[in-house]
Structure formats: structure tokens, C-alpha cells
């Protein structure tokens, strides 16, 4: 019995719709909305029997499927154990991202520490004791919890979501959309990064940031500004000892992991950058990634789910 | 700016429906199904303005709301950092639980190790190298992926679920239900414990177990046997270094956390037991816990979600 690699899917097949069915669904879709398999993908009978591994889907991808990370929209957080790479989302939270970059370029975070790790919730870092000057950064940044969905590219998921009328992807980020309200917002999936705030909606300024390390805390959606996503090194934040204080804050007697530095990637010499690219979510390749998660058909899976949660879809990242 | 305790809800209020509305919904409910607030709870206008903290809800609970853990249905896994307490679910997976208890009582796990930690997925332990005899335990246990929902108590959640027609709770476990099929199954929420298996559905025997440490991997539902839930010490499993091998298995050069022992609580002297009780999920107190998660109304939250995922509801545990 080969249980060493057992029970977990050793192969992660992707299933694609038959082309005619796919194009039919595209025709039915709203303008500006791409369709990931449609409801037809939800039943066993309607999916094609062409299992592809996730690896095979990605291996067959075209260079144009991949978007290199923009060094001006990327942060490197250097911990003793390694580098955490954060892809910023200024298209959705321009003012918060601007303020964070001002802080970073002043060296604000260098020598600070991870201050909070709450199990199944968040890892948080920054200046818990407010000993540092914000310098040229704003002390209060207006809330960017939601944004207009007009002209925002949106690759919709066909499956129902508990929290929002529609969910999908835009610019390689998970987002939710309320079409009647013409509003959208970033979704608190695993590895998403946000801006700590006090009760006042404008009280966050980026001097405290958090990353989601557990079940998606979707109740935070539309209540706090998300600014990006950890695309490499997430395990360095998720595997830290949980804090013993209230809300998972470290107590004075607990050692804190220091932040050696946070840098904007553009400020790091080219030779020292992490050269990463993220899969574009408006591509056919990403459709196949999604379908591979909706219906797993390798021999391990006996009942394909036929559905997938927006937070259960990986947004692939690779070296370029 | 008190950001040290900011952005995360410092108070976790619970909201209850007005009593007449609640009883109205109870009247409308199907026989044998309890209702947690109903759809009426989903809108701001229909929830009462009586914020209660989760702590207040639990402080107001009655002793009868709490179910002490049954020592015959509880495992203690002793790691160097402390004890992990697992509540077993023999009502849903009797044969797997029986086999695991046979293994445990033979000392099968003592001196083995954590063998796999895959970020945002699972921590797995057991005998990866298959060096040990299973003794009197079965080598193959029939799949217990689903069970008849007939006569299974079910506290339904009113909110839609991506993966299942209905979700809710039974015996302090998260479950899903397909009423037309009269079938139900345990749900892969954070901290749920399952039985590793190979491709053959009957190949699992309990000699390798896993706990969920990230976003609920709901695609595993109905594909593998769940046997319980970690009710204390989950952070000891979730904060371990991620394995560098394929699927998060530790490589030979990585140190493994040893399992000092696994015991059935009933076999441990009374004085050394963890005396815990879990909140019954068929109580009014639990309704209030759920409502506190569906609509958070403390001053930090600006937009209550009005909905909640089955895996975002804590099932409270306390010392007794």
C-alpha cells in the first residue's frame, strides 16, 4: 500500500469543456464577462473525459499567459528564514498602496517584527508600539474597501458563493461583485494582505499589515482595505508560532521574528530580485486551471465536486 | 490610534432574532430541522439590535448546553510541544474509528512522527515507511465517506453553500446534506481529522491520519473518511515547518516532530485527562454563536456579512 503519497491527489488533472460547448457558453455570457466552464461543468456527464494535470496545463501555457510582476507593484519582506514576495494591487487600493510604498521607502518596517499570529486567522506585522514616525506618509488613508465594478475586467466563476452575488478574478486577484450595485471588492482568501485599522474606517495607514493564514475570513470583506497577495514565501508567515496574548499578539516574553527589511522590488538591484510571473486570469489556460479544480478526475478522486470556491483556486506563480 | 488591537474585532457580538420572529421561523422549519436565524437574518433590517459578545453568549450558557467529551471517543496525541486533543466521530465513521482505537491501544503511533505538512492544506502523521505491524487492526476498512441522513440530527445553516445542497451541524461536527438522496457527510473544515488512503477507496486503515490546516479543502468531501476534529492544540499542528518534499512530505534531511504517544483518553488516568466540553450544536446558545458570526455588529464592523460559511463558525470548547 503506497500510502506515503496516498489519499492526496498525486496528479491534479484539469478537465476542459468540449470546445463547442465552451463557445456556446461564451456566446451566452454577458459582454465583458468571461465564463469558466459554466454550470455545465457542474455535472459529471457534461465534462469532457480529457484529464490533464495542473502541471500539464501550465506546461502547455503560452508566454503571453503570464504576467511578470511589476517591480513597482511588488514588495519584498526579508525575514531571517527567507523572502516573502507580495504582489500589490494599486488598481483596487491606490491610496493605501501609495502610502505603504512611502513607508517602505523610508525604511519604516526595517527592524520591526511580526507582532501577531492568530491561529486560523492572520499573521500581522508592523509597529505595534507606535514608536516610529510615519514621516511623509499619511496618518489616515480613506477606506478602499469597495470599488466601482465598471470597466473592471472580471473572469466570473459559475459556482454559487455564500457571501457575494458573484465571485471571480481580476488582474490575478480574487474579487467579488455585486452587479446591481456596480460594486466589487477584493476577497479575503488565504495569503491576501490587508491594512490594519482601528474602528474608524479611515484609521488604517499601512503601518500595520496582515496576511490571511487560515480559512478565508470573508466577514472582513468590505470592512477593511486589501492591498495585495503573498505570491511566494507564504509558508514563512503561516508556520510561525501562534501568539499567546489576546487575539494572537505575542506577549513580551515571547520572541518575535524580526523583519530585516521591506523593499519595493524596483529599489532592489536587478540581480537580487525574485523574477516571478503570475498566470493571467483572463486566459484560456486559467480556465483550464479552474476546471481542473472544479472536477478532479484522477484515479484518486471518486466524486468530483463539480463546484469550487473562489478561495480554493490557486493563482499560479512561476519563475521567469 | 490604538492599532495594537485594531482592525480585528476586539469584541465579537452575537445578535439574536426577536423571539416572535424566531418562533415563526421554527414553525416554518421542517420537522427534525432546527433553524439558525433563517433567511431573515441575512438582512440588516431584520436582525435585532442587541449586540452580545461571543464571550457573553457563552457566559450565559447553561451547563446542559455543553457536552463533556466522552473519554472513549477522545484521543490525546502527545507532541514535544504539548497535547493535541481529538474528538472522534464514531457516529459517522464507526469502522474507521474502531480501527484507529485498536491501533492506538497497541501503541502503534508511539515514537512515529509528523511526516507531512503542506502549506494551506494538511498536517499528516503516521507510519510513512510502513515499518510497523498493524497487529490486530484491519489492513483495509470500508469507505465511510457518506452516510444515511435518516435520523441524523441536523441543525441547518440558512446560507447557501458552494459545494452542497445543505450544510449545518450534527453532534458538534460540521456536516453537509443532500436531502433528496437522504445522504449526509462530514465537511472538511479547518481542524477536521481524516484517514489517509491510497487510490482504492477501502485502502485507508487509520495508520496515517491528517488534519486540515488551511482553507477548507471541500473537494475532499465524499472522497475520504473523516473521523473527528482537533478540539485543542490545533496550533501545534498548524505552526509546524512545511515539508520541502513533494506534497509537503518532509525530506530525509528535515527534522521531524516526533509523536511521543497517542492514547484513548479513557486509558489515561483521570487526573491526567484534559477535561473538556464542547458546545452542543442543537442548542439556543449555539444559535446565538452562529448569529454572532453571521452579523457582526460591534463598532469595528461597518458591513455585517449577513451570511456565514459552515467552516467559519467556531464550535466552542471549554474546560469543565
Structure keywords:
globular, homodimer, six-stranded mixed beta sheet, eight-stranded antiparallel beta sheet, alpha+beta, 320 residues, 5 helices, Cyclophilin
Question: What's the count of strands of chain A?
Answer: 19
Describe the oligomeric state of these chains in a short phrase: homodimer
Helix content of chain A: 10-25%
How many discrete domains of chain A?
1
| CATH superfamily grouping of chain A | Cyclophilin-like
* End-to-end gap of chain A: 38 Å
Structural class of chain A: alpha+beta
- CATH topology name of chain A, in short, is Cyclophilin
Radius of gyration of chain A: 20 Å
Return residue spans of chain A where pLDDT drops below 50 for at least 5 consecutive residues.
1-49
Sheet with most strands: strand arrangement of chain A: 7-8-15-14-16-6-5-17
Mean pLDDT of chain A: 86
Question: Which second-level CATH architecture of chain A applies?
Answer: Beta Barrel
Please report the first level of CATH classification, the CATH class of chain A. Answer: Mainly Beta
The biggest sheet of chain A amounts to: 8 strands, antiparallel
Task: Encode the helix/strand succession of chain A as letters.
Answer: EHEEHEEEHEEEEEEEEEEHEEHE
Q: How much of the residues of chain A is beta strand, in percent? A: 25-35%
Counted by DSSP, the helix tally of chain A is: 5
Bulk shape of chain A: globular
Largest inter-chain interface? A-B, 76 and 76 residues
Amino acid at each position: 500500500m503506497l500510502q506515503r503519497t496516498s489519499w492526496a491527489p498525486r496528479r491534479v488533472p484539469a478537465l476542459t469543456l468540449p470546445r463547442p460547448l465552451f463557445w456556446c457558453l461564451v456566446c451566452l455570457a454577458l459582454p465583458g464577462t468571461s465564463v469558466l466552464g459554466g454550470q455545465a461543468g457542474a455535472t459529471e456527464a457534461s465534462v469532457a473525459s480529457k484529464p490533464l494535470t495542473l502541471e500539464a496545463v501550465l506546461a502547455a501555457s503560452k508566454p503571453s499567459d503570464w504576467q511578470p510582476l511589476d517591480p513597482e507593484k511588488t514588495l519584498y519582506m526579508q525575514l531571517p528564514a527567507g523572502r516573502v514576495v507580495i504582489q500589490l494591487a494599486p488598481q483596487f487600493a491606490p491610496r493605501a498602496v501609495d502610502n505603504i510604498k512611502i513607508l517602505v521607502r523610508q525604511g519604516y518596517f526595517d527592524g520591526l517584527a511580526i507582532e501577531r499570529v492568530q491561529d486560523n486567522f492572520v499573521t500581522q506585522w508592523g509597529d505595534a508600539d507606535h514608536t516610529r514616525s510615519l514621516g511623509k506618509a499619511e496618518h489616515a488613508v480613506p477606506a478602499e474597501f469597495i470599488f466601482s465594478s465598471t470597466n473592471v475586467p472580471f473572469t466570473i466563476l459559475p459556482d454559487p458563493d455564500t457571501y457575494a452575488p458573484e465571485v471571480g478574478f481580476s488582474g490575478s486577484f480574487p474579487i467579488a461583485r455585486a452587479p446591481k450595485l456596480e460594486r466589487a471588492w477584493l476577497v479575503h482568501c488565504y495569503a491576501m494582505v490587508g491594512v490594519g485599522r482601528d474602528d474608524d474606517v479611515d484609521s488604517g495607514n499601512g503601518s500595520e499589515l496582515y496576511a490571511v493564514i487560515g480559512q478565508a475570513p470573508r466577514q472582513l470583506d468590505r470592512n477593511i482595505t486589501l492591498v495585495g497577495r503573498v505570491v511566494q514565501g507564504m509558508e514563512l508567515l503561516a508556520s510561525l508560532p501562534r501568539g499567546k496574548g489576546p487575539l494572537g499578539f505575542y506577549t513580551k516574553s515571547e520572541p518575535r521574528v524580526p523583519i530585516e527589511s521591506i523593499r519595493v522590488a524596483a529599489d532592489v538591484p536587478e540581480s537580487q530580485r525574485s523574477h516571478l510571473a503570475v498566470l493571467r486570469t483572463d486566459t484560456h489556460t486559467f480556465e483550464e486551471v479552474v476546471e481542473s479544480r472544479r472536477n478532479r478526475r484522477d484515479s484518486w478522486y471518486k466524486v468530483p465536486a463539480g463546484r469550487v470556491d473562489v478561495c480554493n483556486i490557486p493563482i499560479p506563480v512561476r519563475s521567469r
